[in-house]
Amino acid sequence: MTANTMGRRLRNTVLAAITTFLLVACAAQQRVAQDAFTISVLGTNDVHGQLLPSGERAGLGAISAYANALRAARREDGGAVLVIDAGDMWQGTLESNLVEGAAVVEAYNAIGFDAAAIGNHEFDFGPVGREAIPEDIGDDARGALKKRAAEANFPVLAANLIDDATGHPVDWDNVSPSVMLDVQGIKVGVIGVMTSRALQTTISANTPGLSVAPLAPTIQSQASVLREQGATIIIVAAHAGGRCTEFDDPTDLSSCGTDSEIMRVASALPAGLVDHIIAGHVHQGIAHIVNGIPITSSYSSTQAFSRVDLEVNRETGAVVSRTVHPPHWACLYRVKTTGQCVGVSDGSSEIVPAIYEGREIRPDPAVVKIAERAAAFAARTKDEKLGVYLEAAFKHPPATESPLANLMTDALLEASGADIAIHNVVGGIRNTLPEGELTFGAVYEMFPFDNRVVLLQLSGRDLRKLIATQAHNHGRRLGFSGMRVFVGCVNSTMDVVMQRADGSPVRDDGRLTVAANDYLALGGDNILMPIIPDGGFAIDDGMPLVRDLLVDWFRARGGTLDPDDFQTTATPRWNLPDMLPAHCRF
User: Fold this and answer.
1) Measuring CA to CA, how many Å separate 122 from each of 34, 138, 143, 267?
2) Is the overall model pTM greater than 0.70, yes or no?
3) Would you report the helix, strand and coil content of the chain in percent, each value rounded to 5?
4) How do residues 197-222 score in pLDDT, each as one tens digit?
5) What DSSP line would sit under 498-563, residue for residue?
């Protein structure tokens, strides 16, 4: 055998080996492609009735566009999409509130949601009809919630909402603790839970006979049952939240509040039991992995959506990998040159439709039609001018003494004729008042709650105790008008001085009329809990709604309003050390 012959044979052997390897590798790749597929989970939370675009709020039409684009992408690669909401769906805009959330449920049906959790604000509408709380014998305090749930084409979930009469989760039409979904033959269990403080952050008159069970044990129990029933994937829709600010690395929790409710819940679950949690309630962003569980949250009011891709083995149903995406802004348009997200196209050639998964974002016509019909129904009420011109926008940053918070408490004080006015301005104010002619709709979106005015007769001592408690409520302190407070600490003893608007002191034995709202009077946010008497405060159902009182105040005042006139930086109402020691007590 010549050297040339040997060389040719060696080359042929090598080529054959390489060809065999490539064929085997290609076959292996084909088996992987056939044996696995992607389930993309698109999550929403705290939509709060946002049917229409408004500023950074994209509207449910935008959510429909992104959901459809994602579905098209998964159809191409043989995958699937789940769309799941984490609660607080319908309370918050005039278009939704006028029909007690019916338009939002209709839009969710058109989008094709697969499941949704009940949030604390789902209770806000009370009985079916215009009354926000039961007025007559036979009124069902949860009538509107039950009606909306029954209209949904998707299961509404509430695993830890307990009926005290039975000791079990509530049993209402289309409301259940969990649901088993079939996704291309794979069983996916979805559980719904709400924050442990859900019943303290809604109208308590609508929640008698209910209680909220702890989240982690409830999830563990439900997930174990679903696993026994064959679920290989467990997703939790949790109306409970936390906050992170950086999203480059889902395993990096340095920007997260790891002591927040949803982080603590995830940390308490057995490893491997839950595959994904969609969170909400606190209107913040999360796209992180805690205790092996991807947690997502996408702010509020359709500003964004969350997404986790689960790569699933077709034979076993097991999750073999997952990709956690940062919150994605749900904009309809972008600036061509910069990619900047914008809400509405101005017709400029610089503004182009947003692209997602290689597709132009186009709202679903059915969802657009639903939103436009709701807008037309609300238009006359929404566009009513109140005779006041705002020289600049009254913004409401997360601070107790913003110009808008001060405006609201000042208006409540003057309109009620009380000595002091108090309001839960952080959380109780939901939108800015825009520059220009003030309309009823703007006031409504600033304060969409049907809370009544309550006039409380308090002693100076009671008021001092309230202020002392609120002094430690950093970031969410009570807003007030009609006085200034000065808080100090000497040897762990808190000193509270309260001074009326005329400079006179508030004495412990003095009596004051304090204007508040029924949400606070009934224990909302635990603000008045330190001073609520046995049997509770008396609430007069004949008093006007806070919003109506504000509207009447604007109408009577007229003229112009400037946010600079309600700025209290130079003479703050709250005066206390930046770092009040935790051990400092009244």
Assistant:
1) 42, 20, 11, 27
2) yes
3) 30, 30, 40
4) 999 888 888 999 999 999 999 999 99
5) EEETTS-B--TT-EEEEEEEHHHHTTGGGSSGGGPPTT-----TTSPBHHHHHHHHHHHH-EEE-G
Mean pLDDT over 453-481 rounds to: 93
**Phi and psi, residue 392, nearest 5°:** -155, 165
Assigned CATH for 36-330:
3.60.21.10
Cα within 13 Å of Cα(537), Cβ side: 27
- Residue 225's H or E segment, with its range, is helix 215-228
| Calpha distance 441→513 (Å, rounded) | 30
CB 454 within 8 A of CB 518: yes
Distance CA 233, CA 226 (A): 9
**Fold of the domain built from segment(s) 384-575:** 5'-nucleotidase;  domain 2 (3.90.780)
Domain ranges (residues) in the chain: 36-330, 384-575
Q: Please say whether the beta carbons of 179 and 226 come within 8 A.
A: no
From CA 431, how far away is CA 397, in angstroms rounded?
10
